[in-house]
Amino acid sequence: MFEASLTEVAAALTARRVSSVELTQACLDRIARAQGQLNAFITVDPERSLAQARAADARIARGEAGPLTGIPVAHKDIFCAKGWLTTCASKMLADFVAPYDSHVVERFDRAGAVLLGKTNMDEFAMGSSSENSHYGPVRNPWHTGFVPGGSSGGSAAAVAARLAPCATGTDTGGSIRQPAALCGVSGIKPTYGLVSRYGMIAFASSLDQGGPFARTAADLALLLNAMVGFDPRDATSLERPKEDYSRALEQPLAGLRIGLPREYFGPGMDDDVRRAVEDAIAALGKLGAAAVEVTLPNTGLSVPAYYVIAPAEASSNLSRYDGVRYGYRAPEYADLLDLYCKTRAQGFGPEVKRRILVGTYVLSHGYYDAYYLQAQRVRRLIAQDFVEAFKRCDVVLGPTSPTVAFRVGEKAADPVKMYLNDIYTTAANLAGLPAMSIPCGFGAGGLPVGLHLAGNYFAEGRLLNVAHQYQRATDWHARTPPAFA
Amino acid sequence: MSLSLDDVRRIAHLARIEVSDAELRAVQQQLNGILGLVEQLQAAETAGVAPMAHAQNVTLRLRDDEVTEPDQREPFQSTAPAVEAGLYLVPKVIE
């Protein structure tokens, strides 16, 4: 069952070869055994999960099952789930029990999926290693001395270690794709506006987007079908005709034009990553795809633009944490101003504080034009680069991360060093484009390498098709970390 | 653009985050490092380029002016640090 696809599991559930209760219990057992090594979960509530599983089994017995009924799903602890602790891996929300469901959790609930637990992450989604957590770092199932990536590291690790067949994450600058790459699993960030952000704790509102993790592209399609949909409670939610993201999976790749940005394939990518990506390009060539060189001239400005825009929006979004209506409150303070200043100094971790301070600065009087507006103009240039590139290709391909996973603690001392992990992923967030990462090999130390595919707006079906055909011809996605086989 | 210690104090005040004197220098160093990364934006040729806030060309939706939210004061205030008579308690603001 742990190697089966979501479709196979759903079939087994409907045929009553396995029950949701058995499946959920098996996952909970694995989670408990792995927790000491991986620290992938912040909250697990077996009684609640099993109650949902029993309800799912009843629904299956009545013949009212959908594709995800009875399937256990782990949620990044950034999604509010009613009655569940929702902490964002922060001391600021360590006691926060969400009084409502996020749209994403609601959709899984309506589909009859089972909430398996809340996964660990970088605090308030700020990070690329899942080391910035109030609950301690998450570890990579392939080698526990190494990071799983971030900020959705717990979700990626859970799927890689077969603790959960699927999980949710969020992606603001690469936080689904990069951990997917470092953990050897598949993850997709949809076009901005497709997945409602209602109840998804806000980091940078013009960039944040929720999306799924699974072991295959076909599974991601099923999960996207559940997650995507108009929600009037999210002002940026897009109203579009309902799509089946698995409809194009079996399309042959003959005639597919794969854009290789010349800016991606210079220095800046480790040799082991380069080899795995080049092998993937060759494999896609054998499936009928043609490689085309394209140019994304403003690539070098993605990370700088992101590290102006994201902190700016974060400084605004995180101003709600003031010790008044919910969350942490400093135990001692002299007056209201002191209440705010101490609550926020004590409640936030160092990376969160850094980003709020940077964001406050770039929005402040005298600097707004030079920094924030300039970054938003550069953002348009970056988006225009892709518009041009997509005239000559169908998907843009590159590595997801310049390196394989690094050691826990290796980059933690230097924020800028950590930020440079994001060079291949941030552009898709800035432009609002769909993008995914799938496993394409292994590098130094037997650590996974991820292949990054970006598509034009609303081209998720095409991306999943390319990924699925690649996964039919290769087996990187089916490999299991030795300690969790 | 390099921040002075006074700049850091000012920004911390704007952000309502207490930064102790002991932390000030380290925070200054880290912020300057990040601003160094970001400096590259200044060189970008952006004359005539409109700022982009949103990927899709959409406008804010309007809805009918009807009451749609139920009264959830009790469950929402159950997570508050200090409430009384339905009010959030904070230190006195007005002397």
Describe the structure.
The complex is a heterodimer of chains A (485) and B (95). Chain A is built from 15 helices and 11 strands. With 485 residues, chain A is α/β, with parallel strands linked by helices. Chain A has a domain of 249 residues: Amidase signature (AS) enzymes. Chain A is globular and about 65 Å long. The mean pLDDT of chain A is 97. Chain B has a domain of 37 residues: Histone, subunit A (Orthogonal Bundle), CATH 1.10.20. Chain B is 35% helix and 4% strand. The radius of gyration of chain B is 22 Å and the shape is flat. The interface between A and B is large, with 72 and 54 residues.
Brief descriptors of the model:
heterodimer, A: 485 residues, alpha/beta, Amidase signature (AS) enzymes, eight-stranded mixed β-sheet, three-stranded mixed β-sheet, 11 strands, globular, B: 95 residues, mainly alpha, Histone, subunit A, two-stranded antiparallel sheet, 3 helices, 2 strands, 35% helix, 4% strand, flat
Helices and strands in order, then pairings?
The complex is a heterodimer of chains A (485) and B (95).
Chain A lengths: L5 H9 L5 H19 L2 E3 L2 H16 L10 E5 L26 H8 L3 E6 L33 H8 L6 E5 L5 H7 L2 E4 L19 E6 L2 H11 L29 E5 L9 H16 L3 E5 L7 H16 L18 H12 L2 H14 L5 H21 L5 E5 L15 H5 L6 H6 L3 E8 L5 E8 L4 H14 L12
Parallel strand pairs in A: 2-3, 7-8, 7-9
Antiparallel strand pairs in A: 1-3, 4-6, 5-6, 5-10, 9-11, 10-11
Chain B lengths: L4 H10 L6 H18 L34 H5 L5 E2 L2 E2 L7
Antiparallel strand pairs in B: 1-2
